[in-house]
Amino acid sequence: MAISLTRRTAIAGAAVAALATTAVTVAMPAEAGSHHAPKPTIVLVHGAFADSSSWNGVIERLRRDGYPVRAVANPLRGVANDATYVKNTLATISGPVVLVGHSYGGAVITNAAAGEPDVKSLVYIAAFAPATGESLAGLGERPVDHPIDPLPLLTVPTPETQGADLYVDPAQFRAAFAADVDRNEAADMAVAQRPIAAAAFGEPSAAEAWKSIPSWTLITKQDKAINPELQRFMATRAKAHTTEVNASHAVMVSHPDAVTRVIEQAAR
């Protein structure tokens, strides 16, 4: 029997509507699947005898790869003081954080990350990772098979605090701290270095965040500031994901690609 024009029009409209509904139903999962969680903020904490500009090469690479970055101006006044400063900085950041410390900055992040649920991982770059009660001076005295010479430090009294600040002798800075950095850049680092309070090296750590937070370590095999054997001991104790590179202590300046790779591993 022939179908009227009006009825045929209604049937066609219903079919189009059904197809449209089907298309939306199929498209929705694809749209949901394309959603990506925001990347964690990378918080960089420099160590003694350096400043935040030492991270510049790493910052450039992290930003190119889409990571938000903060480089903290570490006060270098003492582990507890500096950890509080970093912890206060973390309070201004929303979402997950990867906390990165170089050298003395490793002790700072070990304490700053304690009790911070948004810190998803710790990254130690040629860094100290003390246990509770350990000082950096005490770790430096730990017996190793291949000792290194002490850093050539200069002392400047600070009468207002009844203490002293420490610098690396600028004449020996490159050899002791940045042997694989361009000579002119190392010379600039030597004259612009920031001092650390001498008392910071004797201050015991009050926490060991690496016990509860996953950690990554980059060990510098040509380090003259923190013995590579000591770095390996701390990394093993922390059960850290470990990478080694043939670099000096200033590895973030001389090998920013290697440092960035380790940080991005910890960020995934």
From TrEMBL:
The record's section on InterPro entries has:
AB_hydrolase_1, AB_hydrolase_fold, Sec-Metab_Biosynth_Hydrolase, TAT_signal
The domain of life is Bacteria
Q: Which residues form the AB hydrolase-1 domain?
A: 42-260
Please provide the record's keywords in A-Z order. Hydrolase, Signal
Q: Does the keyword Lipoprotein apply?
A: no
Residue ranges that the Swiss-Prot or TrEMBL entry lists as coiled coil: none
Protein name per the record = Alpha/beta hydrolase
The GO terms describing molecular function are: hydrolase activity
Could you tell me which PANTHER family the record lists for this protein? AB HYDROLASE-1 DOMAIN-CONTAINING PROTEIN-RELATED, ESTERASE_LIPASE_THIOESTERASE DOMAIN-CONTAINING PROTEIN
Task: Write the signal peptide boundaries.
Answer: 1-32
